[in-house]
Q: What sequence folds into this?
């Protein structure tokens, strides 16, 4: 008498019939592909033992990787990253600004390179001793963390304001890696930094791929995609994770946050909000910050009356001159222009003279820390120091709130250019 299947109890004739009827479907817990289940003990037990062995090995290997989080950092303002701490490593996740809930990059940071980590991310030994950077927006974070000396390579050195970096470039301690959008890969590979920090974009960067394939980890710092000023500044915690300086970053950011919010609270209580305009007319198109952009939020926090305050755009609004004249001709202040004098502003376009701030001389730029090389600290350190930037704007619009404030980035346009003709 033939026995039934050890697994399902079905007799051979029935199991063969089921196999023919359900080829490729799940029967008795097995996925049938070529043969039905067998009645022979030896044939059945062998794959069963193999399965047990595989499960046992997987479990044993899994025990070497810590899977229970000890702590999780969820930034209060920044949306683009998170940090999860485990027993032997830290998991740093960068989220895509372009695709909701999609992970852009994942890093596993270890103090000991022998520590085992999951295989779905990039393993980096920390603290970093050398770092190449493609963006000036990274430099102030490193300065505040007292790690600026780890910079060994930069892109576009002519655009860097940081005095320490400039000094090290001149001394030959920092390598010029070319343009940020066409990085010199060969020079980067010869430099061999522990990691390359760069801004991420909504498309693959061929140079970054080559660097990564050569064994140099690429760290994507996307602070520039945050829409709030404190959100951008909070990326200091992201940078700090690669130096084991989370505690220092928390202290630094808490101070910036408190000063920013204290000034914001004072500006919110003003009885009158002056009307403002921003930007410039460039070849017939005027780019105004959207209401939900970081600049639009800066105006709001500074107690300004901005025409596009309720707009939801996170970038710039391209406008024609007629629209700007209609909505902004009678504003009180003109902020963030690129010119250094009223004369140059009118010379660039005679219609600029039609705006009230030009007539009253209340036009301001953020070029106080502008070098002859065109390096501007506004684009560099202000990312990490929004408290200083907010203080500048409040001091312009509401000088009674901050009577002793000394402008850091802002300056009032001179009447005429001081440059020789």
A:
């Amino acid at each position: 008498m033939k026995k039934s299947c050890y697994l399902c109890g079905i007799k051979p004739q029935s199991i063969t019939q089921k196999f023919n009827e359900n080829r490729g479907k799940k029967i008795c817990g097995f996925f049938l592909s070529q043969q039905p289940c067998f009645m022979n003990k030896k044939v059945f037990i062998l794959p069963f033992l193999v399965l047990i062995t595989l499960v046992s090995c997987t479990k044993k290997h899994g025990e070497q990787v810590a899977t229970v989080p000890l702590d999780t950092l969820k930034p209060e303002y920044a949306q683009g990253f998170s940090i999860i701490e485990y027993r032997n490593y830290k998991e740093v996740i960068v989220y895509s600004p372009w695709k909701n809930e999609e992970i852009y990059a994942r890093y596993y940071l270890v103090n000991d390179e022998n520590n085992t980590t999951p295989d779905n991310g990039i393993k980096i030994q920390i603290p970093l001793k050398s770092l190449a950077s493609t963006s000036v927006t990274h430099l102030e974070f490193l300065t505040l963390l007292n790690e600026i000396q780890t910079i060994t390579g930069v892109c576009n050195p002519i655009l860097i304001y940081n005095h320490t970096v400039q000094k090290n470039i001149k001394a030959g301690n920092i390598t010029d890696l070319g343009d940020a959008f066409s990085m010199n890969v060969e020079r980067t590979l010869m430099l061999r930094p522990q990691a390359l920090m760069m801004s991420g974009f909504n498309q693959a960067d061929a140079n970054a791929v080559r660097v990564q394939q050569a064994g140099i980890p690429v760290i994507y710092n996307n602070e520039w995609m945050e829409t709030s000023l404190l959100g951008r500044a909070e990326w200091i915690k992201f940078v700090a994770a690669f130096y084991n300086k989370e505690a220092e970053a928390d202290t630094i950011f808490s101070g910036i946050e408190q000063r920013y919010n204290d000034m914001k609270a004072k500006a919110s209580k003003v009885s009158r909000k002056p009307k403002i305009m921003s930007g410039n007319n460039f070849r017939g198109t005027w780019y105004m910050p959207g209401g939900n952009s970081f600049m639009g939020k800066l105006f709001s926090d500074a107690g300004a009356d901005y025409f596009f305050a309720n707009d939801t755009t996170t970038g710039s609004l391209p406008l024609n001159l007629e629209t700007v004249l209609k909505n902004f001709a009678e504003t009180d202040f003109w902020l963030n222009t690129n010119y250094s004098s009223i004369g140059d502003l009118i010379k660039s376009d005679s219609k600029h003279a039609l705006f009230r701030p030009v007539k009253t001389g209340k036009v301001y730029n953020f070029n106080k820390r502008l070098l002859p090389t065109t390096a501007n600290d506004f684009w560099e350190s202000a990312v990490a120091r929004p408290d200083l930037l907010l203080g500048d704007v409040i001091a312009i619009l509401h000088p009674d709130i901050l009577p002793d404030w000394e402008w850091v980035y802002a300056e009032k346009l001179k009447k005429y250019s001081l440059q020789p003709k």
User: Anything to note?
Assistant: Residues 88 and 115 are 6 Å apart (CA to CA). DSSP finds 14 helices and 22 strands in the chain. Residues 41-62 form the longest helix (22 residues).
